[in-house]
Amino acid sequence: MKRLSKAIIVLLHTTDNYRSLIPRIIVGLVFISEGIQKFLFPELVGAGRFEKIGFSNPEFLALFVASFEIICGFMVLTGFVIRLASIPLLTIMVTAIITTKIPILLNRGFWSMAHESRTDFAMLLLLVYMIIYGSGKWSFDRLFSKQ
């Protein structure tokens, strides 16, 4: 029981400042928007895109990823267990870079890949930032860590 409470304290620990607020807003809104778009435009960014990349069972995978993007995006936006919510989003970003940006690098070169991956790279680094620093003062993590 003591290990569990220590793990929860570490997970919820955050700084007592506002420096994570803007990164949380950016990351949360981007992932919520991308998740919703997978439902609204399945052929462009949902199952159609997953099928084009070569994933098996693209319909399920698109719904699975979209659900995680929306749920974890809200968790990041509100600062609710932000370190835990960032892990699936980090996995999504690494997978996106490997499956979509590495082929661009190999086929069209570095500068094309750098242009195409600017949002992926920014999201990746912002997620790492939030894992390191936590969700900050205006967050559920801060509220719960005080208790």
Please tell me about this protein's structure.
This protein is mainly alpha-helical. It has one domain (21-146). Helix content is 82%, strand content 0%. It has helices spanning 2-12, 21-40, 42-45, 47-53, 58-78, 82-108, 110-116, 118-133, 140-146. Helix 2 (21-40) packs antiparallel against helix 5 (58-78), helix 5 (58-78) packs across helix 6 and helix 6 runs antiparallel to helix 7 (110-116). It starts with a helix and ends with a helix.
Key attributes of the depicted protein:
mainly alpha, elongated, 147 residues
Secondary structure elements and pairings:
Elements: H1 2-12, H2 21-40, H3 42-45, H4 47-53, H5 58-78, H6 82-108, H7 110-116, H8 118-133, H9 140-146
- Mean pLDDT, as a whole number? 92
Contiguous helical run count = 9
Question: Low-confidence parts lasting 5 or more residues at pLDDT below 50?
Answer: none
Largest sheet descriptor = none
Number of domains: 1
What percent of the residues sit in helical stretches (DSSP H or I)?
Answer: over 70%
Write down the overall geometry: elongated
How large is the radius of gyration?
A: 17 Å
Distance between the termini: 17 Å
Total strand segments: 0
* Helix-strand sequence: HHHHHHHHH
Beta strand %: under 5%
Helix and strand content put the structural class at mainly alpha
Brief rundown of the structure:
The chain is mainly α. It has one domain. The protein is 82% helix and 0% strand.
